Amino acid sequence: MHEADDFQPRFETRKGLPDSGSDTGVLLHEADGLLRVQLTVTPFGMPRRWRRPPAVRLAHGEWLRWQVNHRFAGTCSGDWTYRLDTLNIAHGPAPTAPTDLFLGTPTRHVDERAALR
Predict the structure, then answer these.
(1) Cα dist. 59→7, 12, 36, 104 in Å?
(2) Strands (DSSP E) along 1-117, which ranges?
(3) pTM of the shown model
(4) Who is most buried in 4, 18, 58, 95, counting CB within 10 A?
(5) Environment class of residue 72 by beta-carbon count within 10 Å: exposed (0-12), middle (13-18) or buried (19+)?
(6) Alpha-carbon span 35 to 40, nearest angstrom
């Protein structure tokens, strides 16, 4: 969300695996009925994350919430901005009410949020 657009949430819904050449911020690979999910983070945000959580494997019907935050410093003034990314991803067909899909408790949760000084 950005102040310029009155903090309207932004989201994107996709079906299937993304193109390998697209810059989605997530690596997905399906094998043996499991979906391997690995979030990629920007090298420009702080704090640096030298150790990252391993990839998560989801079986059909499971879903994942992965959260990570960053602080970006301006090059001239030193002002900084905050960014929180939340990835919700499900493996398999959505239930009959897809609008409620990500409102409950996820099967798996990865929390990479850090204290930003």
Answers:
(1) 34, 22, 9, 18
(2) 26-31, 34-39, 56-58, 63-73, 80-90, 108-112
(3) 0.74
(4) 58
(5) middle
(6) 16
Q: Is 6 helix (H, G, I), strand (E, B) or coil?
A: coil
b vs e for 32-71, b when ≥16 Cβ sit within 10 Å of the residue's Cβ?
Answer: eeebbbebeeeeebeeeeeeeeeebbbeeebbbbbebbbe
10: three-class secondary structure by DSSP: coil
49 closest CA partner among 64, 27, 69: 69
| Token pair in block for residue 30 | 């399906």
Structure tokens at 33: 């009925």
Q: Show me where the domains of the chain are located.
A: 25-112
